[in-house]
Design brief:
The chain is an alpha/beta fold and 255 residues long. It contains 8 helices and 7 strands. 43% of the residues lie in helices and 15% in strands. The protein starts with 6 loop residues before the first strand and ends in a 9-residue tail after the last strand.
Length: 255
């Protein structure tokens, strides 16, 4: 698949993973729409790169549809990348005081990370499906979602987050099968510990904690490595229905 001449939407595009992806796709020649809620960073990217920023709530049909429409006005929409963040409620299923985890800790996290991911995917898929195929195999585009290795081996206190990311993992193959008649591929990246600017000064402490636990290389991941994987997924037309771990062979311990 040729990136140049296509438009792309990056939901969560002002964050660490998202910004790196925006830059990578922009450099490859895509017309990129940064869909996020951080107006300051979004406008900075607009000025620096010449991309478009659209304030976007990943859980809102109207909001996501507006960002998609903006992307499609620039060039045929063929690429959707979703790496949005949000609140992640946690805690043990039964606390030390004997009380059950509040239900809202679970439902809000599911809504933020799973329901919103589904919302972006369904709307992006419908828009990509309207494009003309770009090859004689009927290919129209690709969707990249973001899970986490916590979806496989969530740690103590991560039950809501692990369930949400496990749901994103579980959607991948089914979505790829659903969309195969339309020529739309679906893949998911499951990052491990990625060091993003959002951690600020705490990043050094996290690096010191996680680095030694990662088999190789013994460091946290970099946003640019996530973006490189996105680009590889986009460009490789035979990569479909896969969940790819990006974790340096890390497996989360219980805590």
């Amino acid at each position: 698949m040729q990136v140049a001449g296509s438009s792309a939407i990056v939901v969560g595009g002002t964050g660490g993973l998202g910004q790196a992806t925006v830059r990578r796709l922009h450099e490859a020649g895509a017309k990129v729409v940064v869909a996020d809620v951080n107006d300051e960073k979004g406008k900075e990217l607009e000025q620096e790169l010449g991309v478009r920023y659209v304030r976007t709530d990943a859980g809102s049909e109207e909001s996501v549809s507006a960002a998609i429409a903006e992307a499609d006005s620039l060039a045929p929409l063929r690429i959707s990348v979703d790496c949005h963040g949000g609140p992640a409620g946690g805690g043990r299923l039964v606390g030390k005081d004997g009380s059950a985890m509040p239900l809202e800790n679970f439902t809000k996290t599911i809504e933020s990370y799973l329901t919103s991911s589904f919302n972006v995917m369904r709307l992006a898929a419908a828009a990509i499906a309207k494009q003309d195929p770009f090859d004689d195999e009927g290919s129209r585009g690709v969707i990249v979602n973001t899970a986490s290795i916590a979806g496989y081996e969530g740690q103590i206190g991560q039950l809501p987050y692990a369930a949400a990311k496990g749901g994103v993992i579980g959607m991948t193959l089914v979505a790829a099968r659903d969309l195969s008649p339309l020529g739309i591929r679906v893949n998911t990246i499951a990052p491990g510990t990625i060091l993003t600017p959002a951690y600020g000064k705490a990043g050094d402490q996290l690096e010191a904690y996680w680095g030694p636990q990662i088999p190789h290389p013994k460091r946290m991941g970099r946003p640019a490595e996530y973006a490189t994987l996105v680009a590889s997924i986009v460009e490789n037309d035979y990569l479909n229905g896969e969940v790819i771990r990006l974790d340096g062979a890390l497996r989360f311990p219980p805590k």
